[in-house]
TrEMBL record:
Species of the source: Mycolicibacterium mageritense (Mycobacterium mageritense)
Species classification: Bacteria, Bacillati, Actinomycetota, Actinomycetes, Mycobacteriales
CDD domains, alphabetized: crotonase-like (cd06558)
Domain of life, per lineage: Bacteria
Protein name: Enoyl-CoA hydratase
InterPro entries named among the record's database cross-references: ClpP/crotonase-like_dom_sf (IPR029045), Enoyl-CoA_hydra/iso (IPR001753), Enoyl-CoA_hydra_C (IPR014748)
Homology family: Belongs to the enoyl-CoA hydratase/isomerase family.
Pfam families: ECH_1
Length: 264
């Protein structure tokens, strides 16, 4: 069994993050969680990036937090350990993916479990193999859901389906997840890489500032009134209209050509 790692590589404007612990279905130990938080935090501040892709090494995406290694025999943590630690680890991963202004794409094959499932649900676009399996096993293990599952699932799939996954522990295939609206799309197992690359290329060529502001506005509107949402849109519009990509978009429209956005 390996300790695992979170590896990153820059391919032009795209940051590729790989969860690399295939012998444990890419389950995340404390160090991997910290490394993933650090990688996402750095990406959120990097003006050279225009998209982020998260994948898992081997046959699976991510089997969630590694509760076996984090609860192995040893020194018992102080009372309140979860309350102190999790907001800066697992919860921070979901927050960063959901709130950073860069578009985030997850490519899911095999298992996406617990934190791994919620990471995929928090992404802006998740493409899954039809045979992939999404599973929230919290109550099956005797503890209550975390890492945003009770917020993400009802909004994406509705309360009834959220209860099926969270209270009954039902597993959902990639094909079902796409049908439920949990993920962007499901493709045949041999088409995942090509479909992911096509989507990432489209996002990386887009108006990066406008995409980020639109992402932020959508999230804000989930807990806002119509008037509040439109006021936020107006503020974001003021910012996006000052970008070079806005000028390029107008020029391309008047010249009847495709825009060549630079992300600025």
């Amino acid at each position: 069994m390996t300790d695992g790692s979170v590896t990153t590589s820059d391919a032009g404007p795209v940051l590729r993050i790989t969860l690399d612990r295939p012998d444990r279905r890419n389950s995340l130990n404390h160090r991997m969680i910290d490394d993933l938080v650090a990688s996402l935090t750095a990406a959120a501040r990097d003006d050279s990036l225009r998209a982020v892709v998260i994948t898992g090494a081997g046959a699976d995406f991510c089997a969630g937090a590694d509760w076996v290694s984090t609860n192995s025999p040893g020194v018992r943590p102080r009372t309140g350990d979860l309350l102190r630690r999790v907001p800066h680890g697992a919860h921070r991963i979901v927050e960063l993916v959901a709130t950073m202004h860069l578009p985030v794409v997850c490519a899911v094959r095999g298992w996406a479990v617990g934190l791994g499932c919620n990471l995929a649900l928090a992404a802006d676009f998740t493409i899954a193999e039809t045979s992939a399996l999404f599973w929230e096993p919290f109550v099956d293990r005797g503890f209550s859901p975390d890492s945003g599952s009770t917020w993400l699932l009802p909004r994406l799939a509705g309360v009834a389906r959220a209860k099926r996954m969270l209270l009954l522990g039902e597993k959902v295939s990639g094909a079902e997840a796409a049908d439920w609206g949990l993920v962007h799309s499901a493709v045949n197992d041999d088409e995942l890489d090509a479909a992911t690359e096509e989507l990432v290329a489209r996002l990386a060529a887009g108006a990066t500032v406008a995409i980020g502001l639109a992402k932020q506005a959508i999230a804000y509107a989930q807990a806002a009134t119509l008037t509040q949402a439109m006021n936020q849109e107006l503020s974001n519009l003021e910012l996006s209209c000052r970008t070079a990509d806005f000028k390029e978009g107008l020029a391309a429209f008047t010249q009847l050509r495709d825009p060549d956005f630079t992300g600025r």
